[in-house]
Specification:
Blueprint: E1 3-14, E2 17-28, E3 32-36, H1 43-50, E4 60-62, E5 75-78, H2 90-98, H3 107-113, H4 129-141, E6 147-151, H5 159-174, E7 178-182, H6 186-192, E8 195-200, E9 203-208, H7 210-217, E10 222-227, E11 240-243, E12 246-250, H8 257-266, E13 271-277, H9 281-289, E14 301-302, E15 307-308
Parallel strand pairs: 3-7, 3-8, 5-6, 6-7
Antiparallel strand pairs: 1-2, 1-4, 8-9, 10-12, 10-13, 11-12, 14-15
Helix pairs in contact: 2-3, 2-4, 7-9
Bound molecules: adenosine-5'-diphosphate.
């Protein structure tokens, strides 16, 4: 299969700032790829490099061609900062953008897709934050693109609007569109993406299917028990440590939670709430991109294969 999007060792600096430090990736036709990473990691710069809207070193190919030479009817782009004229209605804005293409979708159908039928005649400046963002997503859809770049599409959208946008993006992907999105929302990345790429300091430090990333880097399950019990006084076959007012027991399978309760009872320890959680993509993010207590040194990861280098596990 020919990849829709290929980047090889892409670099971009702004003065002394290295925004992209050698990013290579390939996204197949029909794939949903989510790029995650902290603020300043280089996500927007990578979207700009992939869409040919910034000068970067290293070849980028979209549909096998230089992104600047690709038929723009085939690409949709929602930039992170998109500030359309305030005194146009949602319908007028989409009609304007639809007019830029030879072959565009019916504007009312796009308004319905992004849940704006009822607000179609409201000036952009009078729409809520979520409605504005949905108008902008609609503007990226008017040309029925084969490849859609969405830079933080759901930022500022309320949970219900976010879920309906997820449904829309899933239906676009099911219809064969290739989607490249950036997000700070790990639930969004996990739900939508076939593969997730984690960018940190301009480098792609891990790329894989969401479940594979969680299995590889997410760490263990955690049982948090509100108790003042001393882990040394408990006969527990699992690693346990104190964290604030709680005891955190790692790697307890759900069927063994009763054993931990029995150990607390046997030690005469009182306890209140118990909560058990599995690792998720947020744990992966915190571990690889920093911000978590148990920080993983992603510099030990072989970026070519996005797997930890020998001796670094
Ligand atoms: P992200 O989208 O992950 O927040 P960006 O791609 O916006 O990251 O930025 C990556 C780095 O490049 C940051 O240090 C940012 O300050 C810098 N940068 C991005 N665009 C410019 C620009 N036009 N001029 C100067 N520095 C920039």
């Amino acid at each position: 299969m020919t990849a829709t999007l290929v980047a090889e060792d892409v670099r971009r600096t702004y003065g002394d700032t290295v925004a992209l430090d050698g990013v290579s990736l390939s996204v197949d036709a029909g794939e949903v790829f989510a790029l995650v990473g902290p603020n300043g990691a280089g996500k927007t710069t990578l979207v700009r490099a992939l869409t040919g809207t910034t000068d970067a070193e290293g070849p980028v190919a979209v549909f096998g061609a230089d992104p600047r030479e690709v038929d723009r009817e085939r690409i949709g782009l929602l930039p992170q900062a998109f500030d359309p004229p305030a005194r146009l209605t949602a319908r007028e804005l989409l009609t304007y953008y639809a007019g830029l293409y030879d072959d565009s979708r019916d504007v009312d159908a796009v308004l319905a897709d992004v849940g704006l039928t009822g607000a179609a005649d409201t000036w952009y400046e009078n729409l809520s934050g979520g409605q504005r963002r949905r108008t902008c997503v609609g503007a990226a859809l008017v040309n029925d693109p084969d490849l859609l770049f969405l830079d933080e599409p759901t930022t500022g959208i309320d949970p219900a609007g976010r879920r309906s946008l997820w449904d829309l993006l899933e239906s676009l992907a099911a219809g064969g569109a290739t989607i490249f999105l950036t997000t700070h929302d790990m639930a969004e990345a996990h739900r939508l993406a076939d593969r997730v790429g984690l960018l940190a300091d301009g480098r792609l430090v891990a790329v894989d299917e969401p479940d594979a990333l969680v299995a590889e880097y997410g760490g263990e399950s955690r049982l948090v028990v509100e108790t003042d019990a001393d882990p040394a006084a408990l006969d527990l076959p699992y690693p346990a440590e104190r964290s604030g007012d709680s005891l955190v027991v790692s790697d307890v399978p759900p069927e063994a939670i009763g054993d931990v309760v029995d150990a607390l009872d046997a030690a005469g320890a009182s306890y209140d709430a118990l909560s058990w959680s599995e690792p998720d993509l947020e744990d992966v993010y915190l571990r690889l991109a920093g911000g978590g207590g148990d920080e993983y040194d992603y510099r030990g990861i072989d970026r070519a294969t996005a797997t930890p280098a020998e001796g670094e596990r």
